[in-house]
Amino acid sequence: MATGGNLALDGGDPRLAGSSDDSILGGQGLSSYTKPQMRLLHDPRVSFEEYHYYAQRARREELEQPIEGPTKGFLSTILPSKSGKGAQAQGGDSEKRRSSHVVAANISDKNTRAHVTDEEWTNASRAARTATMGAIFYLITTDILGPFALPYAFATTGWGPGIALYTAFGFMAGFSGWLLYNIFMGIDSHEFPCKSYGDMGFRLYGHVGRYGLNILQAIQLLCNVAVITISNGEALSEATKFKLCYAVCCLIWAIAGFFVGQIRTLQKFGWLANFAIWINLLIIFLTMGFIAHSPPLYSASGSSAGYSINPDLVTPDAAGNYPPVQHSAGLPDKSNFGASVNGLMQAVYSYGGAMLFPEFMAEMKRPKDFLKAMWSAQIFIYVVYMLYGLYWYAYQGQYTQTPSYLGVSHYSWQTAGNVLAMVSALIAAALYGNIGVKGELAYFPADDDQCLADFAFPVLYNNILVDFFNAPPLTHRTGKILWAFIIPAYWSLAFVVGAAIPDFAGFTGIVSATCILQFTYTFPPMLHLAYNIRKNAIREDEGFDPATGNVIRHDSGIKRAMRGFMAGKWYLNVWNVIYLGGALATAGLGIWAAVENLIAIYAEPQLNAYGCTSPLDVSA
């Protein structure tokens, strides 16, 4: 029967604390009796107050015990270490050695966790946090499509709207990062690590929030891999002058993912992400030089931005002469607003990294350094991508392609950009495919004997196999075998999804509107609103008592929620409501535009990745 305590902002009744049943079940308020390692992996009986108490303790520890190691300078940011020791462990050497072997056990099994001591549990969490600020900067800027989709966005929106909207999107993406950071710092701890977006949803909205976020995150990661598979297939078909069957071109990259995806931990991805961003910068500079000395790729005008807006903009006359490159200060064609919105959705890809911000913070030695890495990455993305997009639009106009490097007309230059892009995209695909299957990031120390437990439980492997079937962690031998079979299935599914969509811009538009925009602009204010209400509702004489395990609350329901909304910085809560409404409206508009675009595309027979003819081969 529901009680007043159950109807408060968090589940569980604090009046039940101390009952024997709660001690067995790991109920709310029994932290001193039911250890964190004995809780269910996602225990609804753990109150917000308990999460917040341990989070505050973890933040104080981070301030009092600075991370060991040399001072990080500019060079270490550009060339981050491949690995490092985790946050400073507590306890004696014997405790540290014992905690280092937690990884060998199946921690998804409650009976196994019963033999893990408090020190082993928290030290394992500390040691898993090894990512540096420099590594996070590179991971955020390891973009699969952002810089190469932005020229298409400018070509469909024009100079003025494109610059204004991209600037607004960039600033709000940074603000969203701050919201996620604020939430993370208030609910993450060594006792209860917050490892993913889904964990945030669970601790603030319960199981509904967790499953909803994880499902959408899994869909986006799958679509990201599909996007890369198809874009690389197009690049390879263009590099082979369309002599290799297009279906084979795409299939090659799906098979490549079978092998690259076998990397189970992401320690190596710090360097791979570093390598990928330098490749992307090289592509940017090379292609900018290429298009300055060559005309647009007229033969691919059927997949250009101009064709999506108004086919007449790229249709040759009777003599076979194509219209000159054109630009627009405002919307290129106000009568086709949907095409401009769909083009704008390509710009959202530039700021799509917010989906992984919680995972990045969970792996950092000093989570408070995340803001520096995030703002540095956002400024880099804004400045470099903006210059690249405007430069490309100036030279290519309505003939701009997505990805942009496909629009280089000189074959040798075109091939150089395509090959580099394929390498960079494969690295990004491995990153997203890894997270999509495993559901988290895992930076482990270089010494295998020091590898500690992986405490993340999100997306596919950990949410389904671990949660429901007690599958072992990926550091366990059986987990490694399961991983080897799951990766090929995951990449095969990504190939099927991507191959079925005939229009690349339409596909990326629908992914951007339904998934990327939500994680970057919709969910952060929604989560922060719940976090602020719960945190601000706690009075000075309320909260979690670690000595007794009791959670003290004097009221519940609407009264408590309204007090939490109006307390503290209430104007931030009001802004979050406005921001949330605007994000939902933009998402709805983007979905409408993407669907309308796909309807128009499907109205005529189209080429897809199940056939041998490439969409870029208009002579076929």
Automatic annotation (TrEMBL):
<protein>
    <recommendedName>
        <fullName>Amino acid transporter transmembrane domain-containing protein</fullName>
    </recommendedName>
</protein>
<comment type="similarity">
    <text>Belongs to the amino acid/polyamine transporter 2 family.</text>
</comment>
<dbReference type="InterPro" id="IPR013057">
    <property type="entry name" value="AA_transpt_TM"/>
</dbReference>
<feature type="transmembrane region" description="Helical">
    <location>
        <begin position="507"/>
        <end position="531"/>
    </location>
</feature>
<feature type="region of interest" description="Disordered">
    <location>
        <begin position="1"/>
        <end position="36"/>
    </location>
</feature>
<keyword id="KW-0812">Transmembrane</keyword>
<feature type="transmembrane region" description="Helical">
    <location>
        <begin position="269"/>
        <end position="291"/>
    </location>
</feature>
<feature type="transmembrane region" description="Helical">
    <location>
        <begin position="373"/>
        <end position="395"/>
    </location>
</feature>
<keyword id="KW-1133">Transmembrane helix</keyword>
<feature type="transmembrane region" description="Helical">
    <location>
        <begin position="481"/>
        <end position="501"/>
    </location>
</feature>
<feature type="transmembrane region" description="Helical">
    <location>
        <begin position="415"/>
        <end position="435"/>
    </location>
</feature>
<feature type="transmembrane region" description="Helical">
    <location>
        <begin position="135"/>
        <end position="155"/>
    </location>
</feature>
<keyword id="KW-0472">Membrane</keyword>
<dbReference type="GO" id="GO:0015179">
    <property type="term" value="F:L-amino acid transmembrane transporter activity"/>
</dbReference>
<feature type="region of interest" description="Disordered">
    <location>
        <begin position="62"/>
        <end position="99"/>
    </location>
</feature>
<feature type="transmembrane region" description="Helical">
    <location>
        <begin position="244"/>
        <end position="263"/>
    </location>
</feature>
<feature type="domain" description="Amino acid transporter transmembrane">
    <location>
        <begin position="134"/>
        <end position="532"/>
    </location>
</feature>
<feature type="transmembrane region" description="Helical">
    <location>
        <begin position="570"/>
        <end position="595"/>
    </location>
</feature>
<dbReference type="GO" id="GO:0016020">
    <property type="term" value="C:membrane"/>
</dbReference>
<dbReference type="Pfam" id="PF01490">
    <property type="entry name" value="Aa_trans"/>
</dbReference>
<feature type="transmembrane region" description="Helical">
    <location>
        <begin position="161"/>
        <end position="181"/>
    </location>
</feature>
